């Protein structure tokens, strides 16, 4: 029972309390680049949930059953980034062939994620924190859900910002970053929850 | 020799990765809680950048073009691993405070970007100076942002307490929101500088990386087919005079265009509105 409670706490902590974008600064590129429309942002969020959850699982299986027994732990960075890049390609091909409807909604976003530091960061964090495989998957899922929450809220705000009269100097990414700062301030309020 | 000094000047000033090109924003936001952290991150990135630039430049005629990106990634990741273990051994406290961001140097746009756009086309020595220039430019950028955040957030600079500020610091600036806000104001200041320079007839190089919303400058862009989210059609990719001067390899351009065309179709087929193209490129608005 304690284990299950731990998993739930882990999920809440990785999704909200330690939000991947707003407190860890990972995955900023898609957060700033793909947050102009809510639908696009939600699509990106869906693809990130899909990829990070699978990548967490695969990387922690590889770490536990390949790298750790052979004493190659120090290769983790190299192995993880190659595994993630290959995985994204593979997932893309698999979806295209087997689940075309899912591919239609997530396909364009998938390759964008290969370079996303949130995926590699989550895989490395799982290992650093000594999570077992189930914990890694839960943590990966939580991180991705946190990313989706942040990017969808951001896209909603940006759709409104477009109609506002902002000083010329702050137009573009300046106002977006300051908005992100205010959102981060709001998320800071969760820091005492767990 | 002149070319090497020009490379240093280019990285430190003309195309400063932090202030002008706005590359590598993840570590910029994350580690600039203090000036010392900024220096540490900047220098470790510099070491990786110099070594990987030299290695990639030395191997540039051996690596086949098709497997260029995976090869670059393996080279960069190896050097990052070496730097990581050196830091763990010799500067444990810095290693602890930089944490996850050290292995994440692998995915820093600056490193793969320089490998792709400079080191893979130039001899070893200029590539080394390019790495030193860009790396030091990044270090200076991180240190300056770190000093500002440390003074505002902690009332100290380089770890030295400033007595006059004891009662007047805003802890928020040392935390996550402060990072976003400081960077937002930095972008705003750079917008003003950009406009002034343009009026004076000396426009700055365009913003690259995340903040431009333009993937084409990213080192992995040739393998990334998601660009159509930002640029719906290949025609709309703004042509940078700098890029024309330095023509890209033929194959890469082909890959880009087919990828873009394919994805444009995908987007249209999926029936979602094709309004992505209407979006202005963030940070380039002031250039118009």
Automatic annotation (TrEMBL), chain A:
Keywords: Cell membrane, Electron transport, Membrane, Translocase, Transmembrane, Transmembrane helix, Transport. Signal peptide: none annotated. The chain crosses the membrane at residues 6-29, 41-62, 74-94, 106-124, 136-157, 169-190. It is a multi-pass membrane protein. One of its GO terms (cellular component) is plasma membrane. One of its GO terms (biological process) is electron transport chain. Its main location: membrane. The keyword Cell membrane applies. The keyword Transmembrane helix applies. Its EC number is 7.-.-.-. It is found in: Cell membrane; Endomembrane system. It comes from the Bacteria. InterPro entries: Ion_transpt_RnfA/RsxA, NqrDE/RnfAE, NqrDE/RnfAE_oxidrdctase. The complex is composed of six subunits: RnfA, RnfB, RnfC, RnfD, RnfE and RnfG. Part of a membrane-bound complex that couples electron transfer with translocation of ions across the membrane. Belongs to the NqrDE/RnfAE family. This is Ion-translocating oxidoreductase complex subunit A. It comes from Pseudobutyrivibrio ruminis.
Automatic annotation (TrEMBL), chain B:
InterPro entries: NqrDE/RnfAE, RnfE. Pfam families: Rnf-Nqr. GO terms for cellular component: endomembrane system; plasma membrane. The keyword DNA-binding does not apply. One of its GO terms (biological process) is electron transport chain. Keywords: Cell membrane, Electron transport, Membrane, Translocase, Transmembrane, Transmembrane helix, Transport. Residues 231-288 are annotated as: Disordered. It comes from the Bacteria. Residues 239-271 have a biased composition (Basic and acidic residues). It is an enzyme of class 7 (translocase). It is found in: Cell membrane; Endomembrane system. The chain crosses the membrane at residues 20-51, 71-87, 93-112, 124-148, 168-193. Coiled coil: none annotated. The complex is composed of six subunits: RnfA, RnfB, RnfC, RnfD, RnfE and RnfG. This is Ion-translocating oxidoreductase complex subunit E.
